Amino acid sequence: MQSLLDGFRHFRKEVYPRQRGLFRQLAGGQTPHTLFITCADSRVMPELMFAAQPGELFVYRNIGNVVPPYSQHVSGVVAAIEYAVAVLQVKHIVVCGHTDCGAMKAVLNPDSLREVPNVAAWLKHTDSARQVAAQHDHVGHPEDALHCLTEENVVAQLDHLRTQPVVAARLARGALRIHGWIYDIAHGEIRAFDAEQGRFLPLLPEDGKRAPEATLRPRLVPVLRNVAV
């Protein structure tokens, strides 16, 4: 707790005075450009990783960076998605997993979840990722199995994200873009899912090409009607 108090003391003395105007402006509302859904893991720090200023990222964290598929059951993450898209009008949604994820390790070792039934129930939302990852041969290579499941989980949660009505409607008309990333903690790198190629690629291509995206082509193209003059 003392480290938190010291940190807040530093914030009050050094950080807040330099950005007093920004904080006073934010006191009246927020206009984040991106909803960032990531794992609750303490090693993942979106604002630090992207040098984001207050008010830029609407961050939602949970175990395993899970997005439940749409249903009549309301959860915190579904409510956050709806609010971010419909009310805050974010233009981007990122689902970000990470290396050495404890949730993914638990999915690979179900016995480890016996004492935490709520966590086990929550991680049922990763079942499709587990089934797909199981199609790959990683026998005797636990690190490869974890790597594969981490990737497949991000892809699965992107699929779940597309089932949310508010997301589906905006994707269809090209008003929203979605992204699936994996943060490599040890190397400070991010790999992004490319929907066109169906695989993860470096987020920052060395050849200067566009960053990979998970956004599919919009289906509803605006129709230009001739207007009589």
Entry keywords:
229 residues, globular, 9 helices, alpha/beta, 39% helix, six-stranded mixed β-sheet
Briefly characterize the structure.
This protein is of the alpha/beta class. The protein is built from nine helices and six strands. It is globular, with a radius of gyration of 20 Å.
Oligomer: single chain
Major sheet: 6 strands, mixed
Fraction of residues in β-strands: 15-25%
Could you estimate the helical fraction of the residues in percent? 25-40%
Report what the structure shows:
With 229 residues, the chain is an alpha/beta fold. 39% of the residues lie in helices and 16% in strands. The chain is built from 9 helices and 6 strands, in the order H-H-E-H-E-H-E-H-H-H-H-H-E-E-E. The protein has a 6-stranded mixed β-sheet, with helices on one face. Helix 7 crosses helix 8. 28% of the residues are buried.
Structural topology:
Blueprint: H1 2-18, H2 20-26, E1 34-39, H3 46-49, E2 57-62, H4 76-87, E3 92-98, H5 102-108, H6 117-122, H7 127-133, H8 142-162, H9 165-172, E4 177-184, E5 189-194, E6 199-202
Parallel strand pairs: 1-2, 1-3, 3-4
Antiparallel strand pairs: 4-5, 5-6
